[in-house]
Every structure is written in C-alpha cells, then in structure tokens.
Amino acid sequence: MMKEVEVGHHSVLLTRCEGKYSAIGNQCTHYGAPLSKGVITGHTVRCPWHGACFNAHTGDLEEFPGIDCLPCHEVKILNSKVYVSVKKKTLRQEKRVKNMGVATPGDTRTVLLLGGGAASLICAEILRQENYSGRIIMASKDELLPYDKTRLSKVMNVESDTIVLRRMEFFQRYDIEVWLRKEAQSVDTDKKTVTFDDGSVQRYDQLLISTGCRAKGLDVPGMKLDNVKMLETPEDARQIHALSLGSKVVLVGTSFVGMEIASYLIDKASSITVIGSSELPYQNTLGREIGRATMLMLSEKNVKFYMNANVTEVRGLGGKVKEIVLKSGDVIPADVLIVGIGIKPNSEFLKGSKIQMDSKNFVTVDKYMRTNVPDVFCGGDLATFPLMMAQNKLVNIGHWQMAQAHGRIAALNMLNRQTELSSVPFYWTVLLGKTIRYAGYGEGYTEIVMKGNFEDKKFLALYIKEDRVIAAASLNFDPAVSAVAERLVSGKVITKEEAASDDLSWLQLS
Questions:
Q1: Closest to 30 (Cα-Cα) out of 180, 133, 151
Q2: How far is residue 447's CA from residue 460's CA, in Å, rounded to a whole number?
Q3: If pLDDT is split at 50, 70 and 90, which confidence band does 7 have?
Q4: % of residues, the chain, pLDDT over 90
Q5: Does residue 242 contact residue 235 with C-beta atoms inside 8 Å?
Q6: Directed axis angle between helix 400-414 and helix 118-129, to 10°?
Q7: I need a surface site. Which of 109, 174, 250, 428 has the fewest CB within 10 A?
C-alpha cells in the first residue's frame, strides 16, 4: 500500500511493503508527477505519467526516464502509530543524485562515448556510480550539453538552458569530459581508435556508439528552399515556432513528432495542413482507432488532412517555399514546410569498420548491448537489439527511456557486471495538452480490447496477440499503462480474458 502524507508542508510518499514502512519523496524526479497516484508492485513504485520507477525503501531510481533518485526519510513506529521525520536539509530537495566517484590519477583506462544523447549520458553516470575510475570522454556533434529531446516538439520556443539535463559543473565534478561540436569520422577497432572530423585521434579501451539518427528529407525537387524545416535541434524548434506564427504551415508525415508539432501550432499558425502517406496517423503503431480519434481531435481545431497522399514537388518563389504539389494534382499553398517522415541512422562513419550493421545500417547488438566486436557497445536509436518481452525479437525502438536503459546496460557490462536488458518500452505523446501514454511492444497485435471510449477522451486500449496483452495505450486513464508495464516487466501474463473482464482492480486506478 502507499499514500501521500504531509510533513511540514512537504509531500511524502509513505509505503508499506513486505511489512516494512518507508517514506520517500512523492514527486517523480522526471516531471514532478505525484507518485502516490502511480502503481506499487513489491517494493517498486512506478510513476503514473511516464513510467519512471523508484525503490520504495531507498528512493533509488530503478527505471527511466527520470535520472535522479528520491530523498529518503526516517520512519519510526511508536504505540502502533507511524511517525515520519524529514530533516530540514532534505525538505527542499526533491531530487537526489546517487553517489558517484571520480577519475583516479594513474588509472589509464578510457571509455569513449560517441554521441551526446540519452544513452551516452546515462552510460557515463552509471560508470561513475559503479566506481569506475578511468577516463570518460563523451564526444558529441551537438553544440549543447545532453538535453531533453522529447521537449522539442512539445514546447517549441524553448530556451536551450531549460532543457539541459546536467550542467557543466556536474560533468566537471565527476570527471566526465565533454567534447562538443566534435563528430566521429571513422573507427579502427583493431587499433582501438576513433578519428574525428578535426583530424584528432582518440584511443579507447571501451567504446559506446550512440550517435542516434537524423531526420529523413523528402526526395523531391525544392527541398533546398528557405522555410523548409526538419526538427532535430532546439534551434530548429525555435525557428519553426518563429516562422509559423501567422503563417500557412504544411506538415508532411503523421508520426508522433508530426502530430505533436501540428497540435503545438494550432493557436499560432494561420492554417495547418497535414499530409500523410497512410490512411490514418500512427496506423501501424497505435492502430486505426487511436489514429482516427487523433485526426478527429485535430480536425475539430481546423487542421486539414490529406491522407494516402504523396508530395511530388515543393515549389518556391524568390527562394522561399510557396506551394506543395501532391501526386493527386492538389496544390497546397505554404509559407512553411515541416518534414517529419522518418529517420536515417548516423552510421556512415562505421562503413569499412568491422562493426556489424543490419540491412538498414542500424548496429546489431546482443542483450548486453555488445556489438560483434569485443569492447564495442551500441545503444539508443542506432541500435537494433533483442527485446526481452517480445521473445528476444530484434527491434529498433527510438524511445527516450529505451536509450537511457541501453546506456545503463552498456555501462554495467563494460564493467563485467553481466546484466541483461529487460526494460519494457514506455513512451508518451502530447496532443492538445492531453497525454497519450503507451507501454509494451504492440507489433503484430491482432485485436484491441477497449475500456472507456474516444468520444469522452478517456480510454485504455489493450493490444492482444496470441491471447495475451502485449501493449497498452491510454488517455486520461492513469495509472493503467504503468500497471500494464509492471505486469509486462514481471513476465506475469495478462490474458485476453483478464483484459476483457470488468474487474479493473489490477490496474490500481486512482
């Protein structure tokens, strides 16, 4: 059991598991969600919003996307009354950084992390938490320290320093060297060296490749015109925001990012048109029903959709985009064109190395995040990895929380603490201020069991394959998706029968 208690105007989560009382901070360290409205299983508390997990006894982080631990408070039992005491020092602390070590002079080992995203950051932090005392270098082509990329399509006029995950002082304090604006050009796994775009060469003992993916452009004339944009950096986000104010915006692609941008621009652009190549948005991921509901939600706000459509030309005037021509012959006027049609892996620099890639040039790893070359690991959007909850099927999942989990597993296995990747994917998308949450891996589902309905904007969709639940999506149905995630992590099957029954107690609904 768990409940929120007030201690000196401070919200504390009191839990009792296995007969033991504990008290930890009640605000998730990710975005501040009340954990008392989440799910407790054994001694794990899972956040209702984005699925971060914490140990109820210690407050330690057990699953991302949070990156900090929770403060832990003293609990005493006197005359069958429970007393929680909070030290004044920890009263203001909502987050706690786990104890981390530093580099030791004389330790000549070097871990080199390529890429400045979630996987690299977490890998560096876990190495220091586990008392690795060699050198850690993170090399990133970005101009910014690792930042929360999930925010870019949700809050587009974003100030860079508000989304940075760790400040420079943090990296300095724990001896994590960060090289910005530095891009890897080639890797020699025999010599254990990486050559960078500035000609410098760095030796490594262990290497993490997490250079991620970039946006794919449209293969049509006119992509070089001004005001044709793809969202990759905070600067792109700010430019899209500024250019779209009072403008006719056309979006190509009905991915999560495309739909989020459309939703964000509703009260800013003069008109918004979305062009999709399928019949409905997220048809292959969330399914037709949620795709249809999303289209309806946005159409009510005057977003116009052209589905089953393809762009054949982008026409300009005076060097700026002016209209978009579709295969059907339709011509759509545009001041701004935003392209979000998918991704390409940043793996060109690995060509000619011994590191194995699949047919799409993603890097294949095992459940320890190891590539086919000893001491070379890969994580994040670039990795194709075995997903435990899908019978170790090789998948490529570009979610934030998954990239973080990859970084952790890579770090532990660099240190020879054999640890398998067992995370269940969890992600979210924000539309018109409402969050759709999703957990699991729904590919190949054959039917959906629905609770609630789309019309009321309150629903839970349970995705069924071979008579068991493999994924869940929800809107205004917390903490159901977190409850499903916990079941999927535990490996305790949710049968179709259980999913379809009217007894919802297992979802711990608030």
A1: 151
A2: 13
A3: confident
A4: 87
A5: no
A6: 40
A7: 109
Average pLDDT, stretch 327-345? 97
Residue (of 154, 120, 182, 158) closest to 403 by Cα position: 120
Quick check: 482 and 51 in contact, CB under 8 A?
A: yes
Q: How far is CA 289 from the centre of its chain?
A: 24
* Nearest partner of 124 among 162, 193, 174, judged by Cα: 174
CA dihedral 13→16→17→18, nearest 10 degrees, is 160
- The strand pairing partners of 386, in sequence order, are 394
Spatial distance between the Cα atoms of 430 and 448, rounded to a whole number of angstroms: 22
CB 419 within 8 A of CB 368: yes
170-190: average pLDDT = 98
| CA 277 to chain centroid | 25
pLDDT (0 to 100) of residue 508: 79
Q: Is 37 left (phi over 0), alpha (psi -120 to 50) or beta?
A: alpha
Kindly report whether the global pTM for this prediction surpasses the value 0.85: yes
Residue 93 has pLDDT above 90, yes or no: no
H or E element in which residue 75 lies: strand 72-78
Please state the separation of Cα 172 from the chain's center in Å: 26
- Please determine, for residue 91, whether its predicted confidence score (pLDDT) is greater than 70: no
The pLDDT of residue 249 is: 98
Give the CA dihedral 366, 368, 370, 374, nearest 10 degrees. -120
**Residue 138: which H helix or E strand, with range?**
strand 135-139
- Side chain identity at 472, as an amino acid letter? A
Q: What is the pLDDT of residues 395-443, one digit of tens each?
A: 999 999 999 999 999 999 999 999 999 999 999 999 999 999 999 999 9
CB distance 203 to 134 below 8 Å: no
Phi, psi of 160 (to 5 degrees): -50, -40
